[in-house]
């Protein structure tokens, strides 16, 4: 699992943000931005899978782009706090792989 490249993602975002005097927003602002982007993703999911379709002529958004926006803001929040996202991801997977290892029905091996 050492091939994960979240650190590269973090470095690219940092190179982008470092071009600007403003730098990273403060954590409350970044969390607000996360909520905004999550709302945009929710809207796309709702239109794609729910009963409330878009109005005629309303542009079809892309779920992938909204997921990307969420990732970007999460990386900004992590970078602003000096967090290592490879370490965050490793710790998160260890949690799921131990705590939830017997929670779901495992697929049977092929005969
Ligand atoms: Mg967005």
Automatic annotation (TrEMBL):
InterPro entries the UniProt entry points to: MazG-like_dom, MazG-related_YpjD, YpjD/YvdC
Keywords: Hydrolase
Domain NTP pyrophosphohydrolase MazG-like stretches: 27-104
Signal peptide span: none
Alphabetical list of Gene3D superfamilies matching this protein: MazG-like
Listed PANTHER family: NUCLEOTIDE PYROPHOSPHOHYDROLASE
Molecular-function annotations in GO: hydrolase activity
Pfam families recorded: MazG (PF03819)
Hydrolase recorded as keyword: yes
SUPFAM superfamilies hit by this protein: all-alpha NTP pyrophosphatases
Superkingdom to which the source organism belongs: Bacteria
Designated name of the protein: Nucleotide pyrophosphohydrolase
Organism name: Heliomicrobium gestii
Keyword Hydrolase in record: yes
């Amino acid at each position: 699992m050492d091939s994960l490249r979240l650190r590269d993602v973090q470095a690219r975002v940092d190179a982008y943000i470092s071009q600007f005097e403003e730098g990273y927003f403060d954590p409350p602002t970044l969390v607000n931005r996360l909520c905004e982007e999550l709302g945009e993703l929710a809207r796309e999911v709702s239109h794609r899978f729910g009963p409330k379709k878009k109005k005629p002529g309303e542009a079809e958004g892309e779920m992938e782009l909204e997921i990307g926006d969420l990732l970007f803001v999460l990386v900004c929040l992590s970078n602003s706090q000096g967090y290592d996202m490879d370490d965050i991801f490793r710790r998160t997977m260890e949690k799921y792989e131990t705590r939830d290892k017997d929670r779901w029905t495992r697929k049977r091996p092929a005969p």
